[in-house]
Amino acid sequence: MINLRKISLVLLIFSLALTGLWASGSREEADPNTAAERTGGAKDEAEAEEKAPGDEPLRDRRSAERGPDGILSDPGIPPVKFYKDFRTDFGRSAVYFDSIIPGGAPRDGIPALSLPHFTSVERASEWMDDAEPVLLLRYEGAVRVYPVQILMWHEIVNDRIGDVPVGVSYAPLSNTAIAFLRKGFGEELTFGTTGLLRFSNPVMYDRESESWWQQATGKGIVGKYAGDELELLPVTLLSWKEIEDHYGNANVMSRLTGYDWPYGQNAYEGYDRREGPFLYVGPDLSTELDTEHGLMERVIAVRTGTAGTGDSEGGVKAYSYGQLREQKVISDSLNGRNFVLFWQPGTSSPVDSLAVAAGRDVGSAQAYFPVLNTREADTQERDGRETDSRELSFFWDGEQIRDRQTGSEWSVSGLAVGGELEGTQLSGPVTFNHFGYSWSVFKDEY
Hints:
The chain has 446 residues and is of the alpha+beta class. The protein has helices at residues 4-18, 32-51, 58-61, 80-85, 121-124, 148-154, 240-246, 321-327, 374-382, 436-442, and strands at 100-102, 113-114, 118-120, 133-139, 142-147, 156-161, 164-171, 176-181, 191-198, 201-206, 212-214, 219-222, 232-233, 235-239, 251-253, 298-303, 316-320, 329-334, 337-344, 364-368, 394-396, 401-403, 409-410, 416-418, 430-435.
């Protein structure tokens, strides 16, 4: 039985740890004794810059004095608190230190999970509701599902698929979700939370070098790996019902985390109904940025290149959920690479109501390459079987998504769920979910 008094107490403590003055978006913390210590250095730096002659807007300074490796020649002076908590190489930074502020929780105060337990879809259905959002990761034949009701209390999962170390992260304040390989730099990396924010998005760190990484982009911003990029993997944010209906053999991250926390409850109630982000310090969202979308409007950005591999020339383009809700299917291309976006209702907002499952329906969206089984076709060709690599075109028939070539029905997960192609799974590019403000502030960093 759920202990409502316990839930209320934990939510209160968690909220106070994350927030100072919610309504005003103040960067001060709830405890005034620690607020001065945590923010003093950053405030002194900010005040010094405000008084400096010829001061430039933060947006302009972001691209100034940057070497070919992306490292800034003068990122400012890190607050003393940074040195106390981390052994990071602060001599290497790709961002200005005054853009990084305390988020309220200390280092690892939001504890990342490592090598989590998994359970079956059938057993997870006992505590998951149809509309609840989850992250679906398909990699090397494995299908993993990470419930947002757990992720929003831990933000980072250090997982392993076979012998491959992978990471998954979800940030409630910016609505950004990424999956990535935890290797590629001569060592395996394990990630934790710094308790710091940049533009209202978490700063992660790796425990091996204590370099800092921007959660929204997967890029190293301070320390040994500043200027480097994690290799990102396509991950889809969709509803639990989609998993129940079409991925019954998936492995689902379990609530057996070692923490007695109220999973399923939301510590950010009403967040995406605010006029703007919380704990945001950065370029002025009304004057310094091209805010083509509403500040708290959901956006999905598509990148046709591959981060961390040198193939990033395809570009990045964003689409609002409002546009997708109206059209359901959008076909587009970037630098000659065709892709299609699907949108489907039935996914709740995790930061709307007190219960994650009770959030309003915001739907889910994902992008795919409209080519049949490209990876499977390669395997078939090696096996001497006939390949099928047709390019498809898609449309909304008023009730569901179909392809024009066969009339097969498709779901937002890129799976053909009816017709001649039933069971066919499309592959897709890396995508980035954002709130509008977050896309505006980070889009130049992809």
